[in-house]
Amino acid sequence: MLRFILKRLLITIPTILVVITITWGLIRLAPGNFYSGEKPIPKAIENNIREKYGLNKPWYVQYGKMMGHVLVLDFGTSLKYEGQSVNGIIRRSLPVSAAIGLSAYLLALLVGITLGSLAALKQNSKLDYASMALAMVGISVPNFVLGPILVLIFSLTLYWFPPARWYGFPSRGMVLPVLTLSGIYMAYIARLTRAGMLEVLRSDYIRTARSKGLSERQVVMRHALRGGLMPVVSFTGPALAFLLTGTVVVERLFTLPGLGNYFIQASLNRDEPLIIGIVSFIAITLLLMNLVVDIAYAYLDPRIRY
Amino acid sequence: MASLYYRQLFAGLALVSLVLGSISCRALATNPAFFGSTTPPATNILRYINGDEPESLDPAISSGQPEARIYMALYQGLVEYDPKTLAAIPALAERWDINDDSSEFVFHMRPNAKWSNGDPISAQDFVYSIRRALSPEIASKNAYLAYTIRYSQAFNEGAVFVRDPATNQYLLEKDFAEEGAVQTEPLSQKPLTPGGPEIKPTEQGPAAVPDTPFHQFMHSPPRLTLPGSEKVRAKLLASNAKLQAAVAGKEFVKVKAEDIGVEAVDDYTIRISLSQPAPYFSGLAAHQLFRLVPRKIIEKYGDSWTDPANIVTCGPFKVKAWKHYDELIVERDPVYWDAANVRLDEIHFMVSSDNPTAMNLYKVGEVDAVNNHVVPNGWLDVVRPKKDYMDGAEAAIVYILMNVTKPPMNDIRVRRAFNMAIDKINYAKSRRITKPLSAFTPEGIFVGYPQPKGDGFDPAQARKLMSDAGFPVTKKGDGTYECKGFPVNQVDFSFNTQSSNKTMAEFMQAQWKQNLGITVQLKSMEFKTFMNVRSKLEYKGFAIGIWGADYMDPFTFLNLFSTPGGDNGSGWWDKKYVDLLDDANRSLDKQKRYELMAKAEKYLLDAQPVIPIETSSVNFVKKPYVKGLYPNAQSVYAWKFVYIERDPAKWDYGPPSLAD
Q1: Who among B61, B528, B567 is closest to A40 (CB)?
Q2: B307 touching chain A per CB within 8 A
Q3: Which ipTM did the prediction report?
Q4: Out of A38, A253, A270, whose CB is closest to B357?
Q5: Treating both helix axes as pointing N-terminal to C-terminal, what angle do A126-140 and A175-201 enclose, rounded to 10 degrees?
Q6: Which of A17, A192, A298, B276 could form a disulfide with A231 if both were Cys (CB 3.0 to 4.6 A apart)?
Q7: Which residues does chain A have within 8 Å of residue B363's beta carbon, measured at their own beta carbons?
Q8: Model-level pTM greater than 0.90?
Q9: Is the predicted pLDDT of residue A23 greater than 60, yes or no?
Q10: Which residues in chain B are closer than 8 Å to A35, comparing Cβ atoms?
């Protein structure tokens, strides 16, 4: 097991370097500069700016400098936000994204697994149809539609929750972004749980458990749920990584100072150090999450051994 | 089963009616004359939506609007913008004197001004700040605004003087002027007449300021400056034999910060020498580029001097906390020289890049005012009739640039035809809040300026011009037009992706199709991509452009087309146009100057490198209890005059008047 983890970690490093190199290349290919704006800048001033930020150096020097930053995990200073370190930006925006993302995922798990299991246990009942119809709606309605609808109802007409901005964790202001973000995950998890549970409920070991005379409650909680949740677990890895790092749309919609908002802004600003920093961070998180999922698999499924 | 179904249906209906009921209750609870809640906050804190996250708290760095508003709270210059007219009003300078042709300014600073850490503010602080803002190392995007200050452009561009090591004499500009160029020097460069008062005394106080060696230097004939980069210089010398011969054996001396025309005559007197008359300079001096920054703190902390823990400011407010991407909180600075008249305790500059979100926050009363241009077009029907909707003329214009370096747009007849084929009045009607524009300066902003008129809407004449240019427009059987010979694949309309731009482009496309029978393809691009394509003239045909005034003078618009090399997005440049503008700026009389400037504008309109479309309009909302915040032409606000009014009788019902 340890060997497996080490091997996976070692593969992670070249993967991240490749991701960063490609990202760096794409930023350079994209037209425009971090300093260009609506007002044209005189040539001499543009020269001053390029000199100041080392943009007139050859590409390999710039690449080397960037890689140097990445290797020590210190991503330098943002170009757009003068004097702010990229690490500092990630450090302060991650908790916001994490608070929203994790809350949303916990909510999604809670509601999704409950609905999915109930639907599977009462297959073809009204409850089943109703929850699966709801899940279908959840999957089909994108969060940039769900968000404004929730704001319209709960904020602009009922005045229950603020329509935007970050008020700390936990706060009333989190309710609408968390609901918006969790909608689609809730729906996915409900469907995955239902499918997984249905398959497991028909399997031999459940029949065995039942024939042993275990109560229905024990059968479901101890045996069926554990197997039925396998698809949910494999979905959790990437889902969690994206929730942690890239709740882009929701953060934008609700003006939250999270990582996703910075990411999109950095790309629009052509803010190279910030883009590289966030991409590296997301890449590392994503790969680590996948590793955690693999380990969780081994724990949940006795047939898998590394 | 059936009864269960009905029961559910009934429950559902009950819920819906409950929701609807609560909506109608709410609608009654707020004042229908205004958009959303009108309850003033309990404290004297203004919550203001300020747009994007500010880039930097260093006033020399950023050129964006959100930053400009923050700088106005945190920093002071010699002068401040009048909250209504934007004219210069006293700030760190109590008063100022101007010489006869507006080429030399003397500012008398108040002795009681302090930094937020209690240190006194002196004239040396201003000299340090402007030298820093102009230094190539700071690389300020706004530096060009100060280029009228003597030798400041040369300093900012890293240029050099040419000195003869034998005699220690510098080569002079006038010896290398082009043949036939008119040499009219501003008074600031003419030798001083001994004894004669250079600046007439005013009733506010004596104007006499002692002469100094630096002042003598300013009044000597301008030195020749050459590019600092050896490569560029060699190229220039190779093309000019006279210059080449003159610099042989001479040495190049870098233009230093100490050479620019700003002098601290004593601790509280600043003398600024310009390289040309600029009556608008006192108004321009309120710009953030000219605001004071703390030398000691910058030298101590370097780049991190703007950290909330380190920062020292000189404005009516100082930094309290900066929650990034959320809000910047500034609080009243008790040591500010006019603190007694600052009525807000705090301002919260909130970040929101999404207009509907900002409007939602405003409606539920989470914020008290939003920044300019935030009300989305689709909301105007609802918001515009409300009494908290602010509109007014804006010193900003929207236009279409044409790439005159590529055919068929290099033919002036074609450019004129495209201009005349647009019904701008109808377009402005469809936009609802803007005014149609046929000139290149905004309409109704500069009082007394005899703004020239460009060609109006005249489709028949447009078709004739197209035919003259070799692209005959013919009428088809169904009454529509076609222009078979026109190379439609050589022309398209580029703009940055934004719904208002798309609406505009589609309108123009329809107009050209209807009146000229030409279908121009639309090309929507991401903002930075578009800016790149436009500045490098990589687009074909048309590109959208907007420009807002840097200072309240027509020159801030007309100057766009005077940069050498056609670096204005169209590729058009004409020496005659630049000369006309120079003539205007040399004029001593304000009205005469305006007339000459209008002549230059007419020349530009006749050459038609650009199709003017509209004068923009102020477009935001503020709660009626927010007073002292005026919908002025540049959307800059002197925050010290803003306050919260709790008595509804004194509220603003509609946009407050800009008249004094």
Answers
A1: B567
A2: yes
A3: 0.85
A4: A253
A5: 130
A6: A192
A7: 156, 163
A8: no
A9: yes
A10: 141
Buried b (16+ CB within 10 A) or exposed e, B585-614: bbbeeeeebbebbbbbbbbbbebbbbbbbb
pLDDT of A245 > 70? The answer is no
Residues 68-87 of A with CB under 8 A from B: 77, 80-84
- Tell me, what amino acid is at B512? W
SS3 state of residue B370? strand
Domains and CATH numbers, chain A: 96-257 (1.10.3720.10)
Domain range annotation of chain B? 4-58+299-388+623-650, 79-296, 393-617
Q: What is the mean pLDDT of residues A49-66?
A: 90
pLDDT recorded at residue B22: 45
Q: Which CATH number fits domain B4-58+299-388+623-650: 3.40.50.1820, 3.90.550.10, 3.40.190.10, 3.40.1160.10?
A: 3.40.190.10
CA–CA separation, B97 vs B105, rounded Å?
6
CATH 3.30.70.920 is the classification of domain B393-617: no
- Say yes or no for a CB contact (<8 Å) between B156 and A33: no
- The DSSP output letter for B565 is G
Nearest partner of B102 among B260, B288, B290, B275, judged by Cα: B275
Residue B440's pLDDT band, with cuts at 50, 70 and 90, is: very high
Q: Which of A42, A80, A159 sits opposite B364 (nearest CB)?
A: A159
Interface mutation vs chain A, best among B298, B325, B350, most A CBs within 10 Å: B325
Best of A46, A79, A150, A165 to substitute, by most chain B Cβ atoms within 10 angstroms, is A165
CB contact under 8 A, B26 and A158: yes
CATH 3.30.420.40 fits B79-296, yes or no: no
Q: Which residue of B has its CA nearest to A161?
A: B364
Residue B462: pLDDT over 70: yes
Q: Which amino acid, one-letter code, is at A60?
A: Y
Average pLDDT, chain B: 89
**Ordered alpha helix ranges (H), B239-348:** 241-247, 281-284, 295-301
Residue B30's pLDDT band (boundaries 50, 70, 90)?
low
Residue B543 reports pLDDT greater than 50? yes
